Amino acid sequence: MMVAAIRVLAMRSDWSELRRGALMMLPLWPGVTAFGIAFAVLARTTGFSVLETQALSMLLFAGSAQLAIVTLAGGGAGTAAVLLTVLLLNLRHVLYGLSLNARLQPEDGTRRPLLAFFMTDESYGVTMRELLAGRGSGSMLLGAGLSLYACLSVTTLAGILFGALLPNPERIGLNFIFPLMFLSLLVPLLRSWQALVVTACSGGSILALREVANPGVAFLCAVLLAVVVGMLLDTRGPRGADA
Amino acid sequence: MTSWLWLIVAAALITFATRLAGFQLGEQRLHPRLRRALDYIPVAAFAALAIPDVASGAGAFPARVLGALVASLIILRFGVLWGGLAAGMSAFWIIGSLW
């Protein structure tokens, strides 16, 4: 009886935390909608099937990695180069998990795989802010992630349907929304001179390297070179670039 | 075409592994220098993904550069992703049609 009552209370608080997390992501829905539609149109334009496009959003659920796969695989890069790029793009998640793990409740330990699958930059950001203020929970992280997941899944499907109605997406230059998307992710991160140097290094090297190497290898070399340069420049301060 | 589905499944497993790894590693501390190096990965990766397609790609070069500039300014000023994308694409289309 007692156990049952506690279980009901736990479920109730779980539900309210889930809901809080989901609602905290609402302001991001327009951005996710723009991304989902643009991503689906780009993937279809590049030659990815309906199933593959939807699978990218629902299995990966990682915007920058999804775009990288479409660009690199669509541009003829090899499997190893694409997968290494995905790994490189997603390594930051390891840090999110490390910092969350120290602050979540022990009972969240058993559902780590569930929390991990739905964790994004955004859901990590809002949940960590709450956890640092003595609130927040694993359920909030999950709610925030599920909210973004639902939005991205539906808008990817909308983009697939909407894209089919367009007469010729390539002719009107819809592909250009792709570099614009990455610029929009990049520009807010340029808050230090080191970050600017890293950007120049990465951009300069990929322009040179893609003349002599395949897109995936050029990308990996450019990024690794730029990260090493950034690490060498970064001699002081707790943080060089906010990411 | 079908080979991409397996690539996507493999990429999904890698993505999931990176998300889970931090949780499973517990409270081990990373060297601060390594932590800061990881902070540069998104910057370097986004630059390497954006810059080649602005340098050469769909449409006229001036339209791409001005579209990129407009999108950057809007995202800096307002911090809204769709605002930057809409303004950048508009600039790209308008200048491209004039070119």
Shape of chain B: elongated
Structural class of chain A: mainly alpha
In angstroms, what separates the terminal alpha carbons of chain B?
36 Å
| Uncertain parts of chain A | 237-243
Annotation field: number of helices of chain A: 12
3D architecture notes:
The complex is a heterodimer of chains A (243) and B (99). Helix content of chain A is 73%, strand content 0%. Chain A has helices at residues 2-24, 29-46, 50-60, 63-74, 79-90, 92-101, 112-117, 121-132, 138-165, 177-186, 193-209, 215-233. The termini of chain A are far apart. Residues 237-243 of chain A have low confidence and may be disordered. Helices cover 84% and strands 0% of the residues of chain B. Chain B has helices at residues 3-25, 32-55, 61-78, 81-98. Chain B is elongated, with a radius of gyration of 19 Å. Chain B starts with a helix and ends with a helix. The mean pLDDT of chain B is 86. The interface between A and B is large, with 96 and 69 residues.
Entry summary:
Chain A has helices at 2-24, 29-46, 50-60, 63-74, 79-90, 92-101, 112-117, 121-132, 138-165, 177-186, 193-209, 215-233. Chain A is mainly α and 243 residues long.
